[in-house]
Amino acid sequence: MTKLDHLRNRDAVLRMSETEAEERASVVDPDDERMIINMGPQHPSTHGVLRVTMELQGETVLRSKPVIGYLHTGMEKTAEDLTYLQGPTNVTRMDYASPLFTELTFSLAVESLLEVEIPDRATWIRMLMCELNRMSSHLLFLATNGMDLGAVGMMIYGWREREEVLRFFEKVTGLRMNHNYIRPGGVAADLPDGWREDIRSILDVLPERLEQFDVLMTGQPIWRERTQGIGVITTEEALALGATGPILRSTGYAWDLRRSMPYLAYDQVEFDIVVGTYGDTFDRYAIRLNEIRESMRIVEQCIELMPDGPYRTEDRKVTPPPRARIDESMEALIHHFKIFTEGFKVPPGETYTAVESPRGELGCYLVSDGGPKPQRMHIRAPSFVNLQTLPHMMHGGLLADAIAVISSIDPIMGEVDR
Amino acid sequence: MREPTDDEQDEAEEIEATQDDQKNLHGCPVTESSGQTVLHPQEDDYQALIETLREEGYEVCVDLCGADYLGNDSRVLPPSISPERFELVVNLLDLGAARRVRIRVQISETSPRIASISDIHPGAEAMEREATDMFGLQFEGHPDPTPILLPDGWEGHPLRKDFSMGRIPVQFKAVDGR
User: Is residue A203 helix, strand or coil?
Assistant: First the structure.
């Protein structure tokens, strides 16, 4: 139990109710010069509406507590009122920077209860889209991380590159974000004509741009000064706190669900898992930057290996009949109508599926009572769990570094609060 | 008394076989659900089971959430477990062996209390606070049982089945002097 004792003795977590924190806010204790301050929820570097209550001594952060819930809209409750076909429209709004992953984990959960087979092409389209989404999500991270640390130019570059990917998403799914593209049974539509060329044009420009980022940030002394050795976390701490994704990998532990517990067709493509050494802010930045390169490798292979065939299952229980059939068959019309009004029924049972989202393990716990709507739908949000590492990373550091640490966790508040 | 038909006899044998096959792990009945291993401990054995599993290699508490089975009669539990309204569902992950296990504990409606596992898995702290908010489950020994997603002083537990959507207008806190 030594590692846990270490976590406890550090006393990094501020255990104080909101009311008490408000009463003591900004009052300096005359004995030890400690004071409680409140950062957020509208601070520009808190990535949405994260509020952190911190105990400071001078400029040093002692204890802190992330206060969340400002974006809570009860999406798990909403899910109980939507059919399985409507479900993805809801979950896609949780992690708005990587919406396809939440759709994927939800669809995988429904399919595991339905026991339907997904055609190869649907699997590969899902993988292709998810890797593109990982790239766009990490580009967004580079933009905001740069902005938080004063590299304002990086913000523009990151958004610019991300927009290229989002433009492709718009072409495929009709929307830049909140796609509702991956659905139980397959995907909503086949890839449009010329998709290979569109992706190639992204893959052609991106390596050069990533090298520019290396010049702008990775090798730059000011950037290193601000990130190296800041917000250090060890493997034991990360595991005890349930942290996954780049935070766990930054400590040198090569855990990636795509490799360790493969889903989709990740066992058929080649890619490397990027790990760090020191578990600091710089490692977390470098991992995400290099994961873009690995995702590009996977996308490259998806272009080459993309199989032909249907893009959604032929199982008529989940997939509506083809448009042409509806014109000539009354039964097909009724069938179509039934699927979209009443929804399809899912056999009773419960399941947990997990995928590797850009932020860590994204899971879906689904309970069905045999009806067309879930009895319980719970999303295991990586940002929500990862945020618990924040007090431990900030403990003993400077207030100015707190910004760097929050940014390096890359929390998406929509997913934290759900 | 008539002799049981062949079909009935087969059925009886099948049920007996499944009861004999009933696997046990650390004294808990084990079931399979969608190819995943599920353990069903008694409320009192729950904390000890988590501790044993952690020593066995399940060192990450990936997920912890509540579930409300009000009005759902479709769930299948091992015979030794009596169904209760609430369930606490914990997902553990063994990174070394790349395997998962799920633990489902029955929690009664009249006293929804259970031991906290935040001593064993500090990462469960936020998730237990969420389960308290959403289902009103009380975790004994939790270091910081304050609301996490709901505002301070919120009444009710939104994910309970008898908390209907749109029934209660949104509760806002008034700010003094404004």
Answer: helix
DSSP A350-385: EEEEEEEETTEEEEEEEEE-SSSS-SEEEEE-HHHH
Which residue in chain A has the smallest CA separation from B104? A350
Would the CB atoms of A78 and B146 count as touching at under 8 Å?
no
Residue spans of chain A under pLDDT 50: 1
Q: Looking at the complex, does the CB of residue B100 fall below 8 Å from at least one CB of chain A?
A: yes
Interface membership of B4 toward A (CB under 8 Å): no
User: What is residue A321's DSSP assignment?
Assistant: P
Total-model pTM: 0.89
Contacts of A102 (CB under 8 A, 6+ apart): A91, A92, A94, A95, A357, A362, A379, A415
- From chain B, pick out residues whose CB is under 8 angstroms from the CB of A74: 158, 165
Q: How far apart are CA A209 and CA A139, in angstroms?
A: 11
> CB distance B95–A384 less than 8 Å?
no
Residues of chain B with pLDDT under 70: 1-22, 167-178
Cβ of B63 within 8 Å of Cβ of A365? The answer is yes
pLDDT tens-digit profile of B32-47? 888 888 988 888 889 8
Q: Which residues 117-146 on chain B approach chain A with CB closer than 8 angstroms?
A: 119-127, 130, 134, 143-144, 146
B49 CA to chain A: closest CA distance, Å? 16
Q: Which one of B62, B77, B117 makes the best mutation probe of the A interface by having the most chain A beta carbons within 10 Å?
A: B62
Residue A201, token pair as written in the block: 């044009």
How far is Cα of residue B72 from the mean position of the Cα atoms in its chain? 15
CA of B1 vs chain A CAs: smallest distance (Å): 37
* Kind of pairing between the strands at B86-94 and B60-68: antiparallel
Separation of alpha carbons A37 and A53, rounded Å: 6
Query: How many other C-beta atoms can be found within 10 angstroms of the C-beta atom of residue A181?
Result: 23
The pLDDT value given to residue A247: 93
- Contact assignment for B122 to A78 by CB distance below 8 Å: no
pLDDT value, residue B17 = 42
Phi and psi angles of residue A346, each rounded to the nearest 5 degrees, phi first:
-115, 135
* Angle, CA B159 vertex, CA B153 and CA B163 arms, to 5°: 80
Name the token pair of A270.
Answer: 């080649």
The interface predicted TM-score (ipTM) is 0.85
| CB of B156 less than 8 A from some CB of A | no
Which pLDDT belongs to residue A148?
Answer: 85
A163/A177 Cα distance (integer angstroms):
11
Q: Enumerate residues 6+ apart whose C-beta is below 8 A from B16.
A: none
**pLDDT for B16:** 45
* pLDDT given for residue A124 in this prediction: 94
Structural domains in chain A, CATH included, are: 75-313+346-385 (1.10.645.10)
Residue from the list B125, B148, B152 with its beta carbon closest to the beta carbon of A19: B152
Residue from B93, B128, B129 whose CB has the most chain A CBs within 10 Å, to mutate: B93
Residue A380 Rama label (left phi>0; alpha psi -120 to 50; beta) = beta
Supply the DSSP symbol for A319.
Answer: S
Q: Identify whether the C-beta of residue A184 lies closer than 8 Å to the C-beta of residue A107.
A: yes
pLDDT recorded at residue A400: 86
Domains within chain B, CATH numbers bracketed = 33-166 (3.30.460.80)
